[in-house]
Structures are given as C-alpha cells and as structure tokens.
Amino acid sequence: MSADNNWTYCPRCHKQIESSKSIYGKVSEKEYLEFLDKPVSIEEPTLREDYELGITLDKKEGWIFYIIYMASCDCGFRFKYRHKELLPSSKVKE
Ligand SMILES: [Zn+2]
Question: Per the domain annotation, does 52 fall within a domain?
C-alpha cells in the first residue's frame, strides 16, 4: 500500500492561460486585464494530486489491486478516479 501526493498544472487553469494568449490584441486592454484578473496562477502548479495504490485483502472479494486518485485546484476543478481489480486466482474460498 502506498499513499502520496503531488502538485502539477491544472487543466482548467491551463485552458484559461491558452485563452488569454488567443484573445491578446483582439479585445480591448480593459477586457484583457479583466480576463487576467481572474484567480488563476500561471506560474505555479496549482493542482493537488492525492493517490493511493497497492494490493490488499478485501474480506468479501479476496486479494485486489486498487487505485484511488483525486485531484483538486483552488479554481474549482475536481477529478476523482477509483479502480479495483481482483487478482488472478485469489478468490476467497468459502
Ligand atoms: Zn485550476
């Protein structure tokens, strides 16, 4: 079993950065500055990733491999993924 966390770049914030590049020079300076004023960080990784994975004994199913992954950013972006898989030839005998 292993649990860890990491910081990386947020896809939603990154999209906003790309949008800011594409509108530069196409909107008024006021609109552009208002757009940039939205609370996103373009320098720092803002997406916190928490994950845990490993092999464990599930009382009902037997030995399983599992992954739990969660990511969240201050901008409101959230992503969660869970997976578990029964290991071959590991069913609990009754
Ligand atoms: Zn974000």
Answer: yes
* 35 Cα: distance to centroid of ligand 1 (angstroms): 15
Q: Which domain holds residue 48?
A: 2-86
Q: Contact, 18 vs 9, CB < 8 A?
A: no
CA 70 from centroid of its chain's CA atoms: 6
Q: How far is the CA of 45 from the centre of ligand 1 (A)?
A: 9
Asked if residue 81 has pLDDT above 90, the reply is yes
Residue 80: inside a domain, yes or no? Answer: yes
**Domains of the chain: total:** 1
pTM of the prediction?
Answer: 0.64
Mean pLDDT over all residues of the chain?
Answer: 83
In a domain, 91, yes or no: no
More confident of the two residues 90 and 3: 3
Ligand 1 centroid vs 8 CA: distance in angstroms?
Answer: 10
HSE of 17, CA atoms in CB hemisphere, 13 A: 13
